[in-house]
Amino acid sequence: MGIRFLSVATALLLLGACGGSGGRPPPGPPAPGSRTASSLVVTADVPSIPADGSAQAIVTAIARDASNRLLADVSVDFSATSGGIAGSPAITNEFGEASVMLTTAGDATSRVITVTGTTTKNGLTHSVNVTVQ
């Protein structure tokens, strides 16, 4: 009887030490692009770019949750009314930022390019204008 009790007690201790997860690994980080934002703001690092294509604009989307916490792993698709976008779609980093490059794409006409960021999971949108001169 004493050995049986000792065996059962040892088995219970060993089971308790394993964490009781049932053999499942702990949950990992969210998959890239899997989070849902409550707000999205799109900005450009410069208000205008030269028509000759000698410089570009960096356009950044910032994703936040309902408590204004910056969100990583939000997928943002960027589009532009003209010119060219490089790096879209983009996934927000730990600072809630996803960035792309806007170029004139060889079009030397003066104009205003509207760049729109859209979260791919829930369709939030925000836009910024960049002047080509």
User: How many E-type strands?
Assistant: 9
Overall residue-averaged pLDDT value: 87
Question: In what range is the share of β-strand residues?
Answer: 35-45%
Radius of gyration: 25 Å
- What is the H/E string? HEEEEEEEEE
Distance between the termini: 92 Å
Can you give a write-up of this model?
This protein is mainly β. The protein has one helix at residues 2-17; strands spanning 39-44, 48-49, 57-64, 75-80, 84-86, 90-91, 97-103, 111-119, 125-132. The longest helix is centred in the N-terminal third of the chain and has 16 residues, at 2-17. The model has no long low-confidence stretch (mean pLDDT 87).
Keywords for this entry:
133 residues; mainly beta; 5-stranded mixed sheet; 12% helix; 38% strand; elongated
Structure summary:
By secondary structure, the chain is mainly beta.
Layout of secondary structure:
Blueprint: H1 2-17, E1 39-44, E2 48-49, E3 57-64, E4 75-80, E5 84-86, E6 90-91, E7 97-103, E8 111-119, E9 125-132
Parallel strand pairs: 2-9
Antiparallel strand pairs: 1-3, 3-7, 4-6, 4-8, 5-7, 8-9
